[in-house]
Specification:
52% of the residues lie in helices and 10% in strands. The protein has 375 residues and is α/β, with parallel strands linked by helices. It has one domain: TIM Barrel (Alpha-Beta Barrel), CATH 3.20.20. A seven-stranded parallel β-sheet has the order 2-1-9-8-7-6-5, sandwiched between helices. A two-stranded antiparallel sheet has the order 3-4. The protein is globular and about 55 Å long. Helix 4 runs parallel beside helix 9 and helix 10 packs across helix 11.
């Protein structure tokens, strides 16, 4: 039997997307390692035991949010997922780092310009699998425990009454290759020297990914509630408008439309500064997605620009949640978010993930603000 809180929480999320005035603003938990920290579990144990990882996440969220968590954006986690997303090596606690240090990306050039030709010749997925095995220490094999446990973790969160609104990461092509090529090399050697080839490669990668995502969305057994559509380097802060449309935004828009076609919530996970690009999101059908901001974008100006076209989630700053902030500062900022960005069309959440060193008191102030400041 489904926990009745699950349906109530999911309805509150959907109501926020629809800009309905409801009983309170939804609270969405975001962060992985922070739960290990507040539950006294080492990061190495957390990422190497998926049952422990899931339990730690559920109990961590309950510890600071009680029953206020209307959704979560992670049920379990493995650093190797970052290797697969960014085509780079992840330094792992217990292997490359001390047991209780946070995982890190070691950004070095793992993809060459010759690989673009290989993708066009052999296809993206065969090339990607070859890259993983030969250059990235086979992250898929090291994440098999995550892959096998993920459906169990989703069910455990459902039983706990917490919807998982991030069932997959659906990233545009630029984000992957900007990681595998490294930032400077990609921008200076690829975008400016071989833009036409990037058009070909990006289109091939996008089409293969869209086919896989459509298969996932169309199967009731694998259809997620929502997915992340991530953007951290293909941003309007890094690209001029023409290049942003050509190399980044067109792919965002296609992924979002696929989500909408299958009634999956597109969550635009917008790291970095998007101040110059908020208006682009009016391309997305009204009341069909969530704009998740990380603190680099001015969330208050974003609301002015986007109006009631799209819900906004975020962006309690990491520094404010850390020991450098206080519960009083968090509370005051959350109050401002609720009444200036919301209450309609707003979801309370950390800016990106809650940091590893967030204090329990600051996390509680963020979560409990939604019952303190009502519409």
């Amino acid at each position: 039997m489904v926990n009745p809180q699950y349906d109530a929480h999911l309805e509150r999320i959907k109501a926020a997307i629809d800009f309905e005035i409801i009983d309170r603003v939804p609270f969405v938990a975001s962060g992985s390692a922070v739960n290990a920290a507040i539950m006294g579990v080492t990061v190495a144990d957390y990422i190497n035991d998926m049952e422990l990882c899931c339990t730690t996440n559920i109990e961590g969220i309950k510890k600071y949010a009680g029953d206020l968590a209307d959704a979560a954006q992670a049920t379990i986690f493995k650093p190797q997922l970052l290797s697969m997303a960014w085509l780079g090596r992840a330094k792992v606690p217990g292997v490359d780092l001390p047991d209780n240090e946070l995982w890190q990306m070691d950004e070095k050039e793992t993809v060459t310009q010759d690989d673009y030709d290989a993708i066009l010749e052999m296809g993206y997925k065969p090339w990607l699998n070859k890259l993983f095995v030969e250059r990235l220490d086979d992250p898929i094999s090291k994440a098999l425990d995550f892959i096998e446990y993920a459906p169990i973790a989703d069910q455990r969160f459902k039983d706990a009454g917490i919807p998982n609104i991030n069932g997959a990461a659906c990233d545009p092509p630029m984000e992957k290759f900007c990681g595998g090529r490294t930032l400077m090399t990609f921008f200076m050697d690829d975008l400016f020297e071989i833009p036409e080839k990037l058009d070909e490669v990006f289109r091939k990668v996008q089409d293969e990914n869209l086919a896989d995502w459509e298969a996932m969305f169309s199967d009731p057994a694998t259809k997620p509630v929502g997915v992340w559509i991530g953007g951290w380097r293909g941003t309007p802060d890094m690209l001029n408008p023409e290049m942003f449309e050509r190399f980044s935004w067109q792919y965002f828009r296609e992924i979002a439309q696929l989500c909408i076609d299958y009634d999956v919530i597109p969550i635009f996970h917008m790291d970095s500064n998007w101040d110059n690009g908020i208006h682009w999101f009016k391309d997305i059908p009204r009341h069909k997605g969530i704009m998740a901001l990380d603190g680099m974008t001015d969330i208050f100006k974003a609301r002015e620009v986007i109006g009631d076209h799209m819900a906004i989630m975020g962006d309690v700053p990491s520094a404010m949640q850390s020991p450098f902030g206080t519960p009083e500062e968090v509370d005051a900022y959350c109050k401002r978010l609720i009444y200036e960005v919301g209450p309609a069309g707003y979801l309370m959440c950390s800016g990106c993930d809650s940091p590893f060193n967030a204090t329990l008191e600051n996390l509680k102030a963020m979560a409990h603000s939604v019952e303190k400041y009502l519409p």
